[in-house]
């Protein structure tokens, strides 16, 4: 039977609050591309100043240091993106509504101006110069998702000016990440799988780790976005060690 280690498994994560208590549900399994655990130690030496063995070690001991954790993944549900952006997740629940003859001033030089709402419906949207309706895609252009409008070159509002905007904006629901609101993130990492080298089941758990991003999140990347969190595992009261790895025989 092989004694090699090649792990295929399911990794789960749970956020912890500042006191180390679980908050929210368990996320996973997460497509993990790296889960590196490195116990650290610091060497303390006493050296000789005697003539016969000057500079040689008389005593040499190692003192344990915090265990280093590095976790990389390319699954990006909202809760994981929030972790790598040092943020929190909140709900988006914006109601629908209607604007009628809402006053706006289109900037000169064909620059955009925000209407004040987002997620507009194209159908029924009317922009007027006084009482005169303007022609979409000729006199003006609208970014319906962001709720912005601008005058178009050669159109009736080429130089900008005051308009009246009427239209319906749709309800929005979803998740918002409020970034950079935490100085660190505490997580519990655990999972199960198989050692492909010998077929034995393996389980592991890092009870409490404080982590922060060790790489940027490139929202304009041309490949699938990946992220990495790194930090240290802590000793947790009532647990046998900062982390455990179990190989199951039966």
CATH-level-2 architecture of the largest domain: Roll
pLDDT < 50 stretches: none
Structural class, judged by helices and strands?
A: mainly beta
Amount of helix: under 10%
Q: Averaging pLDDT over every residue, what do you get?
A: 94
What series of H and E elements makes up the topology?
Answer: EEEEHEEEEEEEEEEEEE
Sum up the overall morphology in one term. elongated
The CATH topology label of the largest domain is Pnp Oxidase, Chain A
The main β sheet shows up as: 8 strands, antiparallel
- What percentage of amino acids are in beta strands? over 45%
How far is the first residue's CA from the last residue's CA?
Answer: 16 Å
Descriptive overview:
This protein is mainly β and 250 residues long. It has two domains: 7-43 and 62-90 and 177-247, Pnp Oxidase, Chain A (Roll), CATH 2.30.110; 96-170, no CATH class. The protein is 3% helix and 53% strand. The chain has one helix and 17 strands. The protein has one helix at residues 78-84; strands at 7-16, 27-30, 32-47, 57-73, 88-94, 97-106, 113-114, 126-129, 132-133, 140-143, 148-151, 161-169, 172-178, 185-195, 201-213, 227-233, 243-247. The strands form four sheets. Strands 1, 2, 3, 4, 14, 15, 16 and 17 form an eight-stranded antiparallel β-sheet that branches. Strands 6-12-8-9 form a four-stranded antiparallel β-sheet, with no helix packed on it. A hairpin with a 4-residue loop joins strand 10 and strand 11. The radius of gyration is 29 Å and the shape is elongated. The two termini are 16 Å apart. The relative contact order is 0.22. The mean pLDDT is 94.
